[in-house]
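The data are quoted verbatim for completeness:
=====
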Amino acid sequence: MAETATASDMGIGLSMLFGALAIVGAGIMYVAAEDQIVAAGGFGLAVLAGSLSIAALHVYDSH
């Protein structure tokens, strides 16, 4: 019997999702420049989402 492997686009999809969340976090940081607590939350969201975006590419690597 032959085994076949199918490639998944899960890594690309999750990376795009987390990339969009990173952009939202950067937008929050830009809009809430006067309020440091909200800007810090936006920064945290941007860094976390960016890290998860790269991690999704590595976890679901198809090579």
Notes: Residues 36-59 form the longest helix (24 residues). Residues 25 and 44 are 8 Å apart (CA to CA). Residues 10-59 form one domain.
